[in-house]
Each structure stands twice: as structure tokens, then as C-alpha cells.
Amino acid sequence: MKRKIFAPEHEEFRATVRSFLAKEVLPHYEQWEKDGIVSRDAWRAAGKQGLLGFAVPEEYGGGGTSDFRYSAVLAEEFTRAGAPGLALGLHNDIIGPYLTGLATEEQKRRWLPGFCDGSLITAIAMTEPGAGSDLQGIRTHAEDRGDHWLLNGSKTFISSGILADLVIVVAKTTPEGGAHGLSLLVVERGMDGFERGRNLDKIGQKAQDTAELFFHDVRVPKENLLGDLNGAFVHLMTNLAQERLSIAVSGIAAAEHVLELTTEYVKEREAFGRPLAGLQHIRFEIAEMATECAVTRTFLDRCIEDHARGELDAVHASMAKWWATELQKRVADRCLQLHGGYGYMAEYPVARAFTDGRIQTIYGGTTEIMKEIIGRAVLG
Description:
Layout: H1 8-25, H2 29-35, H3 40-48, H4 68-80, H5 88-102, H6 105-117, E1 122-125, E2 141-144, E3 148-159, E4 166-172, E5 182-188, E6 194-199, E7 210-221, E8 225-226, H7 232-268, E9 270-271, E10 274-275, H8 280-308, H9 314-338, H10 349-357, H11 367-379
Parallel strand pairs: 1-4
Antiparallel strand pairs: 2-3, 3-7, 4-5, 5-8, 6-7, 9-10
Helix pairs in contact: 1-4, 4-7, 5-6, 5-7, 7-8, 7-9, 7-10, 8-9, 9-10, 9-11
């Protein structure tokens, strides 16, 4: 089915993204995978190409557009290229709204130009060793010391944790924490007491640095409070719909791409004297996956349109997130099976799609959390 959500300018942008990937990302990606981290030069190149800060006002160096379709194009093309390590979506779609929506004028002038030119890489630190999706369990805390906050605690599984120059930290600013006692504090590279632990060894997305972060009596200036004091819970809930939609967009793009690869493979690979595509079982497998992808794509495109108009709600974003990522996982597994032994070889794209995509049903809120949100809304 022909997609109808993109205008000519979005397709022109798609060509720009593909050119950027071909020149600045794909030639270096194998080395980044070995290093466990991407080059900062790639971030600066992305900024120069205009791939950072779409929604940031032009006066701070951004694109000045809130049209999420540009983010969708970026996510789709990076997914198809198999290059999740350069986490531009995290930077633009997940962290960007906190800075554009909550920062003071002084903070915007301090942080947004670097955010847009790639010289300032960002991360958000919510997850702790003992607290994942449950914000009530956060133990990292900050004490009010007059002209600064004294921050102590630790975070884990923080994407871009090694490279990040600016980290938005979710911390308790009241003894009880929870929904009414959490705040967002911005910790900057070089602050005394801010330390990075291991670059964690993951089964997939090897080029994307994911780290432990430690805060030992970090003096965070009062002017680095982002948003309202004790208002983090509301701020986090406000921005989760876009985060989950962004993950879902990558999910359906990944499923479609691995299916395309597998369709070509079964046409060429022979068994019992004829192509695999000549076997009824193979045709049925491909037919089922193609149908599931087509149905999911239709729903996702509707969600993208709704979000571009500011109409996407948390329930439908949760539906999109769990369904698209579970489909991605299921399709990657079935396509690997159809590749046989070759699917288990790391040099085959299907193997990387299998390992890189496995995190999709976990981060941004697990499938189980998404179903809980939907269930509560439906049942009241």
C-alpha cells in the first residue's frame, strides 16, 4: 500500500539522510561496533547536515519545526541501514523535548546551540540498579544546600552514557520521592563527583555506548534544575508518548527491512533442487509476515499523523510501542530461521537485526508496562 503521510519535502529529507549514512556512518560502522562507541566526529557531521534539533527554534540553531515526520524519516532510514549506534533519535525525540519545553531562556542559550551542532551530546538517566520502569523506586537523591543541590546515587543502562556531555538526572528532591518528590537535574561533563562506570557489554547495538553513572556529592548549581521543582513525574509522563512512538517507528521499519532481506534470500537459496521460495511453507511464512507488517504500518502511519497534529494520546502510543516492537522481535526470529545456519552467522544482516532489535520490547517501557497502561485505560 502506498504511504500517504509524507510530502515531497520529507522525501527530499530522506535522500539527505541516506547520503549522510553512506558517507558518514556506514564506512565506519564496523569499527564503531568493535570499539563499542561511535566517533564524536559523526555527531558533529550530523549537526552540520541539519539532522539534530528539528524542533529547536531557529534562533538557537535548530530546524524550527515540530513536524514529527522528519524524525520518523530519520528513524526509518537509520533502522534500514542497521545503524542504531549513532543515537540521533534519543537525542532529538526523547531528550530534545525536555530542553525545548522545560528549559529557561538562560538554559536554552547555554545548551541548545551545542545540542544542534553536535558538540553537546545528551543522555537521560532514569534507570537504577533497583528501579527500572518503577519511578517510585528511585533512590538517587539531591539535598538542597542553598546555592546548589548535592547529588548522590547511581544509574545504569544509560544510553550515550560514555559520550554524553549533558545528562538529565531524575532524582529525589524530597525524602519520600515518588510522584510528588522527583526533580530533573542537569549534570554536565566535568562536574566533580560525576563518574562513568563501565561501557556495558550488550548482546546487540554494540556501537551504542551504554553506561553506568555514579554521583558522589556532585554540586549541581540551582540554575541546572530543569522544569519545576518536584515536578519530574509530570514532565516524564508528558514526553513518554513521543518516546514510545519513536521506538515503534523503528520497530516497524526493522520488521519490514528484515522481511525484504529474507524475501530476496529465499528466492535465491536452493533446497531439494529448487529455490526455498518454491516451498509452500516458506510462502506461507512470508505471506503471514508481509500481512502483519502491512497492518502494523497502517496503524503506525496513523499514529505519526496524529502526533504531527498533537493528537496522539498515551494509550495509542503504548499500543504502537508494544505491538510494533513485538512484531519486530517475532519477524526477526522467523526470518533468522528461514536463513538456516547462515542466519546465525554474524556477517549476515539478519543476525544483527535479531540481536540489535531485542532491546526494543524492553526500553522505553516494557511490553508488560504498555499493556498495563492500556488495560487501565480500557477498564477504568
